[in-house]
Design a protein that fits this description.
It is an enzyme of class 5 (isomerase). The chain folds into two domains: 32-374, Alpha-Beta Barrel (TIM Barrel), CATH 3.20.20.150; 390-431, no CATH class. 46% of the residues lie in helices and 12% in strands. The protein has helices at 38-42, 48-53, 74-91, 100-103, 110-131, 158-177, 200-221, 245-254, 267-272, 277-286, 313-325, 347-374, 376-384, 391-398, 402-410, 423-431; strands at 32-33, 36-37, 44-47, 95-99, 134-139, 182-185, 191-192, 226-229, 239-240, 261-266, 290-294, 297-299, 304-308, 334-336. The protein has an eight-stranded parallel barrel with strand order 3-4-5-6-8-10-11-14, surrounded by five helices. The protein has a two-stranded antiparallel sheet with strand order 1-2. Strand 1 and strand 2 (36-37) form a beta hairpin.
Length: 434
Amino acid sequence: MTDFFAGISPVTYSPDAPADQLAYRHYNPDEVVAGKRLEDHLRFAVAWWHSFAWPGGDPFGGQTFERPWFGDTMALARLKADVAFEMFEILGQPYYCWHDADIRPEGASFAESNRNFEEIIDYLGEKMQAQGTRLLWGTANLFSHRRFMSGAATNPDPEVFAWSAATVKNCIDATQKLGGENYVLWGGREGYETLLNTDLKRERAQAGRFLQMVVDYKHKIGFEGAILIEPKPQEPTKHQYDYDVGTVYGFLKEFGLEGEVQMNIEQGHAILAGHSFEHELAMASALGLFGSIDMNRNDYQSGWDTDQFPNNVPEVALAYYEVLKAGGFTTGGTNFDAKLRRQSLDPADLIAAHVGAMDVCARGLKAAARMLEDGGLEAARDARYAGWQQNVAQGWLRSATLEDIEAAVAAGEIDPQPRSGRQEVLENYVNRFV
């Protein structure tokens, strides 16, 4: 045991707890909603990188957090793991997620880094077996080290491509070893700053081949989890090849991977792409790509992905409405890709941030479930498109030509009359639930 969270008891569902007590006031993991326990609906995960590896810096200032495990030794990596699993015990969430660089120190060579990685994976496995917390997904950090300054799979240097492929191979192995339910690829630097030094067609081909090798390896080793791509617009390069769900779908189609890869969608990235979170979720569902989510929020005044914990119940409700419409999570879940504010220095702040976020998500999901059960939104949508159920309209979609339709219009059989979209009515309807 460490003393980092000394004095903080496991958090329980206690809706009437005093205001200054850390308690779940809306998240009761055993509450049954729409036929399933809340824990099984939401499948919460803690992000190792933001919670235990982030030092509290920003573009204008360095480290503000003082953590006893900060450093580049295996002893400190094990201490970090000890603290992490103590936090998991306090929160009681079922899952966590990692990048390789979050959990092991960088070695002087690839071989040394991998030895460190394998050792800490075994240590995590022992702690998981003892405690029961599971791995939602693993991934590789192919963006922080200076070798990745020009990308990983899309790098102009083939040696960086090879290093990245070897790293991903080892991370998939580790994810499988720990029973991870997904493996995520996200291109933190898979894009370009300027076309002046970029062969865009070549880089897309490299990224496509890289992903094909990942999918081939998944099948070769019998990894049963999902392969997920996380769209990352403008972060950090201006022109990202994985800009949004629609862009990634086109990429997958181009390289014959649309049946092999799903989406891990983040709220903050959806906003940076000029979309809403629910838009990206609905798009992924419509294209058959919905997999998992990173739950956070942006500061809408900053224009950057600030990775704040969610606190907006109406936004979260609309997101979970799309999740439930898509059939809910299978291998995916709700990963809190969110970090404390750099002034939130205390261990209790880390617990409070997750507790509040889990409550917000529980409120949002329960509101979404009530809306689906009520059926008001779906009835309004059905009514709006009812004309397309008529035989004539169905024929236009199946077999009619432009000449056929023009003849019907010219004969006076068609007389369009605009109808209200009733947006304000539907917004009022949503507000009844949130």
